[in-house]
Hints:
The structure is a single chain. By secondary structure, this protein is mainly β. It has a single domain (3-158), classed as Sandwich (lipopolysaccharide transport protein A fold). 0% of the residues lie in helices and 67% in strands. It has strands at 3-9, 14-20, 24-29, 39-43, 45-49, 54-65, 68-79, 87-99, 104-113, 118-129, 132-142, 148-151, 155-158. Strands 1, 2, 3, 4, 5, 6, 7, 8, 9, 10, 11, 12 and 13 form a 13-stranded antiparallel sheet that branches. 22% of the residues are buried.
Amino acid sequence: xxxxxxxxxxxxxxxxxxxxxxQGVEMLFGPRDGADGPVKVVANEVIFNQQDGVVxxxxxxxxxxxxxxxxxxxxxxxxxxxxxxxxxxxLVSSGVYLETGQGTASANSGEYDLIEGIIKLVGEVTIxxxxxxxxAGGLHYDVKSGLSRLIDNASALVxxxx
Length: 162
């Protein structure tokens, strides 16, 4: 199996990239010594748009930080306007799935605001937490506090033996 560590020093990004034929591409964003560690993104393919400061991830995208896992078919990472080596926002689309350790959620699309520490999911959001299944038009999940807020026609279905 081929493994190579490459350091990309682009005008808009300074990133460590681990390339593997079997596992796709892995990238780390953010501090390595933070409470939840860096944000790690793994995908089958990565496309760099140096002029716009955007990194596009395609195929089996997995965004992880600590116990949070955000998966999708596609994602785009946007750099900080003042410091292009920092990522402020990750947009996810198509087949979005979120796992937090407290439950799971699925949606049509979403975003992870790394500055605010908020993950927002939109479009046919379904949340499963134990015996309860929630549905809504949107979900705001605070990464730091673990607080979830459902918006837009939120409802709950309690499953169990009656």
